[in-house]
Give the backbone structure.
Amino acid sequence: MTETQQTHISHADYMALVRALEFQIDAGVNVFLEAEPVNRFDHQPSTETVEPNLQSNSPITPPSDSAPVFEPQGQNDDKPLYELPEPRPVAPAVLRKNTTEAGDISAAESAALRADTLEALKQAMEAFEGCALKRAAKNTVFADGNPAAKIMLVGEAPGRDEDREGKPFIGRSGKLLDKMFAAIGLDRNDIYITNLVPWRPTGNRTPTPDETALCRPFLLRHIELVQPDILVLVGGVSAKEMLDSSLGITKLRGTWQDLNIKGRDIPALPILHPAYLLRNPARKAETWQDLCSLQKKLSHSPPAHAANNSANHIGGTD
Ligand code: URA
């Protein structure tokens, strides 16, 4: 572009670019090598993919923590400048079995199964009185974003801001989550967000296994109705619960897993929770790798399923 040529963008687009750049800079993407972007995913990564070992319980090897490899331009034209570690597949994940200590799980199950649309599910959860968490909560935090999006995020539980407003991920963590997705060109219209439990545990404590078990029928029905192409498990509590894994999130993150929800296999990607990243900003580099892996998966998945049955759309997700 010559000095006299100017590009006009709206203030909103400008701010979205600033937010995307902020996260990339925080994640260590601070070296610009070329004037034009190059699709690095066209190159075959040279790192080996570890085949899943379905027989052994050996721990997953996490992707290398080493810094991204930047090569000076022109040294080896065949080699991608930035090599992403290929996510390691592990044994297909299964959902934990229902327990009976969590209260009236069967009431939650039948209420969830009766709901044929997202709006009906939202109403069923708002009417459900079988979970003690609800008594202290101001709102049932159902979801936000676009139910027709390919990507569905499952976080942990609403915090104070979410409880007050009735929407997931709108506090400090939510703002960072927005920046993370902006960094790969996505906003809330491109994703759909919910949590393991829809009611805030008092004092922002972690929901107990009994509480997540009690809310699980609603979550499974929620996923079944949305039919996402990709699940993103936000944080250790969500990843452990959904994958029934004893591994910590620092091992699970970035590893694609097949999660079978009601007979349908959905690729699931655990990522670090933005609240954890706020406390440990140095780990943003790993999240950047995971977001790039998500972007790559997304580019290989077919177009979003046709408007996702308009009957499934819920009102008030703006
Ligand atoms: N943390 C979560 O896991 N979910 C929210 O909705 C907000 C914060």
In short: The two ends are 37 Å apart (CA to CA). The pocket of uracil is lined by residues 155-159, 162, 168-169, 173-174, 195, 234-235 (CB under 6 Å). The chain has eleven helices and six strands.
